[in-house]
Every structure is written in structure tokens, then in C-alpha cells.
Write a structure and sequence with these properties.
single chain, 242 residues, alpha/beta, Rossmann fold, 6-stranded parallel β-sheet, two-stranded antiparallel sheet, 17% strand, Alpha/beta hydrolase, AB_hydrolase_fold
């Protein structure tokens, strides 16, 4: 039996995909999404954010964007959504994809977006800052961040956390790219870090094309197929910049 190969995959996509991770983790969590996109013929690059400041992470992301020789679909998970909201103003970027991510407006930061949680909303188990950095309580990491990830992998993610800088948390957006560029948004309906209703509100405000998928905050790890599918939709339908 011969399996049909999508036309865009035969010679590689005309769009490069740049993946941006969020706080407390690094770029290795994108491995499953990376493998699926590569199998479908895409050029894929993964940003390793220092997560010390928003400005530093935007600079790291722009460096990866500039290294691409194609137009870019820029993908952000969680805090990575704030990074792509600012870095997405790069002229190479033709579309933004938010995966259970923050999508701040001008003047907003992750800190302002989480400042007043709705009654009954889950509260992430963020420990008090130490030397300007935040960590999640390891004993509660899996339940809040990665409830549908294989337990051994979730435990490893908890133990291998990357400290998240207060300057990243408090970094404010100057010019939100979603106001001028197309965006897509995957709502993780079982998220215990960013409430699904908050995700819906941000995606509506941004005018995003929205899909909802059952999964935890780490849905990019637990359900890479669904995440890759939305990214490919963006890559195939984003309009070129004028």
C-alpha cells in the first residue's frame, strides 16, 4: 500500500516553524511536535530561552527567526506566548500560534494577566522567589503542569525545572504582533496553570482561529499530534505579509 504524501511535504514547506517554550522548562519538551513537523517536510527551529527577562527571550527568539531563509510561523507555549507576541513583529513572521499561552496586549505582562484570578480558578504552585527567580513546587508540578504526561516524564520535568526570572514574568509588551498578524490558538481544556476561560478570553481578544483539545498545560508534550496539526494549518493558510 502506498501512502499519499501531502504536496507541501514532498519538497518541504515554504514556511519555517520556530518553537518557543515557556517558563520552568526548556526547548526539549517540543521534541514530539518537532518530530511530527519534520516528518511532514517542515524546517523546524527551537528557541532556548534564557527565561531571565522578556527582553532577553525576545532577542533570543529574533536571532532564531533571522537565521531562517523562509517566512516563519512563530509558536509559543505558556509564557512563550508573551515572547512571540513581541518577537512576532519581525517582518519574517507571517503567523502566530499560541499553545495554552499568554497573549498579552500592549502594556500587559504575564504578571498583570495572572494578578486577579477568577474565583475558584486553580492557583499554580509557584514558590516564593529566590534571588529573583521562581520555581514550581516539585511535589505539585505534575498535577498542575503535566497531569496527562507519562508519570516518569512528568517527574523528570519537575526535577529539571529552569528557574523563571521575575524580569520575564514582569516584562511588558510594547507592540502586540497579534494586532497585525494572523493567529491561531489551542485551548487546553484541562489546564491547571492558565485557566481555560482565560485562554478563551485572550484568544477571542486576539481574533485567533481557535481549537480546543482536552489536555493539561503540557499538552505540547502529551498530545504533540494535535499541536502539530494546528501549527501545520497555520503554515498552510497564513497569508503573506503585505
Amino acid at each position: 500500500m502506498v501512502t499519499a504524501v501531502p504536496a507541501f511535504a514532498a519538497g518541504g514547506s515554504q514556511r519555517a516553524i520556530v518553537l518557543v517554550h515557556g517558563g520552568f522548562v526548556d526547548g526539549s519538551g517540543w521534541e514530539g511536535v518537532y518530530e511530527k513537523l519534520k516528518a511532514d517536510g517542515y524546517d523546524v527551529a527551537i528557541v532556548q530561552n534564557p527565561t531571565q527577562s522578556l527582553a532577553g527571550d525576545v532577542a533570543a527568539t529574533r536571532a532564531v527567526i533571522n537565521a531562517q531563509d523562509k517566512s516563519v510561523i512563530l509558536v509559543g507555549h505558556s509564557y512563550g506566548g508573551a515572547v512571540v507576541t513581541e518577537a512576532g513583529n519581525d517582518p519574517k513572521v507571517v503567523g502566530l500560534v499560541y499553545i495554552a499561552a499568554f497573549a498579552p496586549d500592549a502594556g500587559e505582562s504575564v504578571a498583570t494577566l495572572i494578578a486577579n484570578p477568577a474565583p475558584g480558578a486553580p492557583v499554580p504552585p509557584i514558590l516564593p522567589p529566590q534571588d529573583g527567580f521562581l520555581m514550581l513546587d516539585k511535589t505539585r508540578f505534575a498535577a498542575s503542569f503535566a497531569a496527562d504526561v507519562e508519570p516518569g516524564k512528568a517527574a523528570f520535568m519537575a526535577e529539571s525545572q529552569v528557574p523563571w526570572g521575575l524580569d520575564a514574568l514582569n516584562g511588558a509588551i510594547s507592540k502586540p504582533a497579534w494586532k497585525v498578524k494572523q493567529s491561531w490558538y489551542l485551548v487546553a481544556t484541562e489546564d491547571k496553570m492558565i485557566p481555560p476561560d482565560a485562554q478563551r478570553a485572550m484568544s477571542k481578544r486576539a481574533g485567533s482561529t481557535v481549537v480546543e483539545v482536552p489536555g493539561s498545560h503540557a499538552i505540547y508534550v502529551s498530545k504533540p499530534g494535535a499541536v502539530a496539526e494546528l501549527i501545520e494549518e497555520a503554515a498552510q493558510t497564513a497569508k503573506a505579509a503585505n
